[in-house]
Amino acid sequence: MGLCRVSLTCIGLCRRWRPLAGLALLALLAAAWLPVSAAPGDHRPANALIEIRYWDWTKTPKRDDYQMAALRLAMEKTRPDWGDYRLIRVAKPLSTPRARAEVFRGELVNVHVAPWRPLETELDKLNENNLRVNVGMFGGTFGCRSLLIRTEDRDKLRHIKTLDELRQLQGGVGRAWVDGRVMRDNHMPVVDSADVGSLLAMLAGGRFDYLPMSMLEVDTLFQEHHLSGSTLMASPDLMLYYPLPMIAYVSPTEPALAKRLEQGLQRARADGSLARLTTEHFKDEIDRFKAQVPRVLVLQHPGLPAELAGEPALCQPGAARGKASR
């Protein structure tokens, strides 16, 4: 009799809790079939298409074409794991502080590509609060700096063989460029200005002696500023190299996108497809370097993360290297 009472009691409890147990089972099944949620801080629905809204500043079309291609390559490398995506190019001439703020907000744009930089320093007040994807996108090539000079000074640069000799001249840099900090860290005398147009005018006017620009951008610079036939030229005899990895910065509202780009770029670097993209896209610039075989003096870039400090320098085959001395 006692056993019957216990059995009847258990049956009654089971009947009473049966609806809740059913709901719990349904919840577990639903959770098992839901897509993996985006990382914390990602405000998209879990099954939403990942979208890149890339900021194109409209000044360097060839470089921006390449950066779009590298982002697309990274997304394709991760398609089996992450699924489809959308890649949008937002061409808008924003100032650097405004662009960083827009990426941080994540509405108009959510990705921009720029040199790796530390957090705010005494000389660099443009703090970068966005997520870094610490995989270099140019394979070291962006740090190959052609020296724009006055044509009358070509012989002066031709005879320079060491950094100590180059330190007798004065360089020019943009006020917010990472280059300025690198050059000062290597005890290179520099003056700065707000924009490239002002720097070119100052160089032509004798305010300084050379302007280091990426060898990938010299042609675009000459076209944009109508420098062909001017008193300025790129020295065919001397270049600088310093590690200047170009990385993607992603809005903190899109941590899943940052993770996907990191995975995709790492895979593209590991299988050689990123290096092939670089050499194909900038074939003319790399071939010109190889034909001229200029001397390359090397500066150090203190503070670079270990994963970025070892980028191969594609501009240096067969070139003499100088070492920064202190």
Description:
The chain is an alpha/beta fold and 326 residues long. It has 13 helices and twelve strands. The protein has a five-stranded mixed sheet. β6 (171-174), α7 and β7 form a beta-alpha-beta unit. α2 packs across α10. The protein is globular.
Quick structural summary:
The protein has 326 residues and is an alpha/beta fold.
List the topology elements.
Layout: H1 2-33, E1 50-56, H2 61-77, H3 79-82, E2 85-91, H4 96-105, E3 111-115, E4 131-133, E5 144-150, H5 154-158, H6 163-166, E6 171-174, H7 178-185, E7 190-193, H8 196-204, E8 211-214, H9 218-224, E9 232-241, E10 246-250, H10 255-270, H11 273-281, H12 283-292, E11 295-298, H13 306-309, E12 321-322
Parallel strand pairs: 1-2, 6-7, 9-11, 11-12
Antiparallel strand pairs: 3-10, 4-10, 5-8, 5-9
Descriptive labels:
326 residues; alpha/beta; 5-stranded mixed sheet; 3-stranded antiparallel sheet; 19% strand; globular; disordered N terminus
Question: Quaternary state, please?
Answer: single chain
Distance between the termini: 97 Å
Instruction: Estimate the mean pLDDT confidence.
Output: 83
Flag low-confidence runs: 1-38, 317-326
Question: How many strands appear in the DSSP assignment?
Answer: 12
Fraction of residues in β-strands: 15-25%
Q: Structural class of the secondary structure composition?
A: alpha/beta
